[in-house]
Amino acid sequence: MSASTRRRRWLTIWAITASAALVAIPAGAAPGGSGSPFGARALARLAAERQQSVGAITPKAQADDDDGNEADEIAEGADQYAEARTSPGIVAPGAYGAAWTGMTNLRGTGGSWRNITDLPYNSDDSRYRDIDSNSSGGSGDVTGRMAAIAADDDGYVYAGSAGGGVWRSRTGGGRWRPISDRLPSQSTGALALDGAGRLWLGTGEATTNADAYLGSGVYVLSDPHHGTFSARSRVGGAELESTTIHELRFGGGKVWAATSEGVWSHSTKTLKGAWKLEFAPNPDYLPGGSLAGDPSAAYKNIANDIAIDPKDPGKVVLAVGWRSGDDYNGFYTKGADGTWTRITGGLGDLPADPDDVGNVTFARSADGSRYYAVDQSPEQLNTNPDSGLEGIYVSRSGSPTGPWTKIADYRGLAADGSALTTSGYMPGVQAWYNQFLTVDPANPEHVYAGLEEVYETKDGGSTWSTVGPYWNFSFPCWSIDPSKQTGDCSQTTHSDQHGVAIGSHHGKSFVYVGNDGGVYKRPVNGSQDASGHATDWTSLNDGTIDTLQYYSVGIGKDLAHGGVSVTGGLQDNGQSVLRSNDTVMGSDFGGDGGDTLTDPANGCDLAEEYVYLAIQVTQNCAVNDGSWVNDAGKATSYNVAPADNATGEARFIAPLAADLKDSSTWVAGGRHVWVQTHGYAIRSGDEWTSVYDLGAGRTATAVAASGGKVYAAWCGPCNNQGFARGISVGNADGTGWHDIALPATGADGTVPNRYLSGFAVDPKNADHVFLAVNGFSRHWTEGPGAGVGHVFESRDGGTTWTDISANLPDVPANSAVVTASGGLAVATDLGVVYRAPGRTTWQRVGSLPAVAVLQLKLGPDGSTLYAATHGRGIYTVRVRDLR
């Protein structure tokens, strides 16, 4: 086949895909699942599994309609996250830059933000070893996803996060400080040190992952030991705005950038002047081209990496292609006539067919004698449920033109100590998302490769060891013993690898890896146990680096210690729990955390939403010493998903809310609006009642309730192929339900035809409600009915709406909350804005970096506003200071 018939849309003119964690899909979370938990959670089904291996796990239910391939679910989540920002069309370049300028020009409120999650977050905290936790898996202290790493020989390490900027350590890792807070983009695609010691930053994360943001270009820091990035340090002009940058490579006096809009180059000596477009396979789809408005434009010019011949810098090979397949996928080189042409043969084992070339990463040895490559195959991704990895290769000539020899495939890696040996979950199952590759500068045969796990070879690929297994649950050395971190197993890294670097500190060489859990290191020539697992990983996530990616936040009184308990759902890092007396946060639920409900009167009564509306509930903060392993009756967490979870009729991250007047009444949204009235005492998904059917093909995007009155927003279709949205209103008892009449085109002054992302109900009047609208107005959105405005108000229970956006910049709005005094705070993709009581204009709250805030909530007494940021943790500000 040529272009794959199953390719996934990459609607990332802003954001691309979803949480990518094998760690966390419970069987009940996937469409068609059985309803029982898995992973550390599957240990509830101990009897049969323990006969094979103590603590053995089955990381995936096979009954879903993806043939057990979680990568499809992640891609679906990615699409859905992007839809909120792009539908009903695609977003023109420059939208976020204009929005950031508008936000920084707003008048500020009083008060300042305080980060409350800037302390270690121990994913193996022995207090929380209940059935739904991944504690004891071996990841240790974690933070948010790291997309790129750089390190030098003076002990300086640079970590580029997915959404929280770039951080520097001067101590070989740890004691981190942010160095990019002044930039308009906090999303990292690439970090690289050049021969002069300058640090280059390519913004815009290129993992094609749901919560990945576009960037604002490339920046350079001439003194990375002491300086910080600023807008003035941008290289070239605006050519690379609104792109993602996969890699930056150096050769022949140039820096080369592999981007979502082709391959570009710039002089490394003169940093002014425009970037040069070296190659775009489909230039008509680039901004300004005749097909720029085509829905497929965002994935028509994706470049993944550049390999430069060390013996002849004029000889360059480009790895170009969309992960799910397209006719242009392949390797390209420049001919004698100066034109780039596809390499159709002569590469040896490295494929040349478009179906077999997807996401690719190159690495060159320091002495120029070896080139290595990892290749993800669209064909494998679309047909093989076990893995999308085509292979790992070496060119022993040192030339990127080969000949190349395959030195690893997924079956071989699985047999070399991997934790991923189950059908449907084998090494490289997410090779489109997880890739890194580096060569020991002192040994061209010594290579580290990253997929879901970390692999090492010391003999050029003849043998491999899984030095950083996915987790330790499947190994005989594992136990849930609360006196130990992970039984007798050594600590591993977090799963899902993205960045790698080798550097020195005090004369000793270390390898640094960046993944969905932050940054880890070990000696380059470290120790291994008999299974090939490293025994010497150190987590560098010491709490001074807070890049946690929250979707939600929940606050309740801490009855045991006074003060409050704060929890929140995270991308691939479960649910964090911060008690009032804590010096270390714990994790009581594993995997991906979506929405969160917490009883204001008791912070240990809480519910975590997993993907597709899977919900777990606990009434003791999920405190457990693991005794449920031998006595299932001692588990204190329960799976209580409503039926739309099993049918797949809920969004990847689905809405969940408690009634403002009654914390025991919950509302959840999938195709149906679900209500349950047992609060945190709920023990079964059967306790939910469907009070309204939104209709086939529709799914809820936001819900809210107050005093029994319920609001539900929906979309369907939710992508730009016929996008439609609406609002339904009714009562929690199932009476009075009806659809609100909204103009289909989102005419001026009415609710736009864009993604409706959140409600805020006036606590004094249930008919007085505010609506947050995502996406960009029609000035930027190239699609029908985009309309204008981001915040709307209704005083008649949703029947009619008024645009109150006023001076609010054109920036996607995610959620809102009404204060006791009648003020309105709104979370946007670029911070928080506030409208004081009696006023009509908006002010910017504090001085957060350019980070997305996905949810706002008030503390139990209403005096503190909590902001869940997707990249910089949880922040608070006193409501009384917002004036």
Task: Walk me through this protein's architecture.
By secondary structure, the protein is mainly beta. It contains six helices and 58 strands. The strands form 15 sheets. It has a five-stranded mixed β-sheet, with no helix packed on it. A four-stranded antiparallel β-sheet has the order 2-58-57-56, with no helix packed on it. A four-stranded antiparallel β-sheet has the order 4-5-6-7, with no helix packed on it. The chain is globular and about 75 Å long. 65% of the residues are buried.
Which stretches of 5+ consecutive residues score pLDDT under 50? Answer: 1-71
Report the β-strand fraction as a percent range.
Answer: 25-35%
How many extended strands?
Answer: 58
Helix count from the secondary structure assignment: 6
Summed over residues and divided by their number, the pLDDT gives a mean of 89
Q: Give the radius of gyration.
A: 25 Å
What is the terminal-to-terminal distance?
A: 61 Å
Q: How helix-rich are the residues, as a percent range?
A: under 10%
Biggest sheet statistics: 5 strands, mixed
Taking strands numbered 1, 2, ... along the chain, how are they ordered across the largest sheet? 3-35-34-33-32
Question: Mind sketching the topology for me?
Answer:
Layout: E1 15-16, H1 46-52, H2 70-86, H3 95-104, E2 114-115, E3 121-122, E4 146-151, E5 157-161, E6 166-169, E7 177-178, E8 188-193, E9 199-203, E10 212-213, E11 218-221, E12 245-251, E13 254-259, E14 262-267, E15 276-279, E16 303-308, E17 316-320, E18 330-334, E19 340-342, E20 360-364, E21 371-376, H4 378-383, E22 389-395, E23 404-408, H5 410-414, E24 436-439, E25 447-450, E26 454-457, E27 465-468, E28 497-505, E29 508-515, E30 518-523, E31 538-539, E32 554-557, E33 564-569, E34 575-578, E35 585-589, E36 596-599, E37 602-609, E38 615-618, E39 637-639, H6 644-647, E40 656-659, E41 662-669, E42 672-676, E43 689-693, E44 699-706, E45 709-715, E46 725-731, E47 738-739, E48 756-761, E49 769-773, E50 791-794, E51 802-803, E52 813-818, E53 824-828, E54 831-835, E55 843-844, E56 853-858, E57 864-869, E58 874-878
Parallel strand pairs: 3-35
Antiparallel strand pairs: 1-10, 2-58, 4-5, 5-6, 6-7, 8-9, 9-11, 12-13, 13-14, 14-15, 16-17, 17-18, 18-19, 20-21, 21-22, 22-23, 24-25, 25-26, 26-27, 28-29, 29-30, 30-31, 32-33, 33-34, 34-35, 36-37, 37-38, 38-39, 40-41, 41-42, 42-43, 44-45, 45-46, 46-47, 48-49, 49-50, 50-51, 52-53, 53-54, 54-55, ...
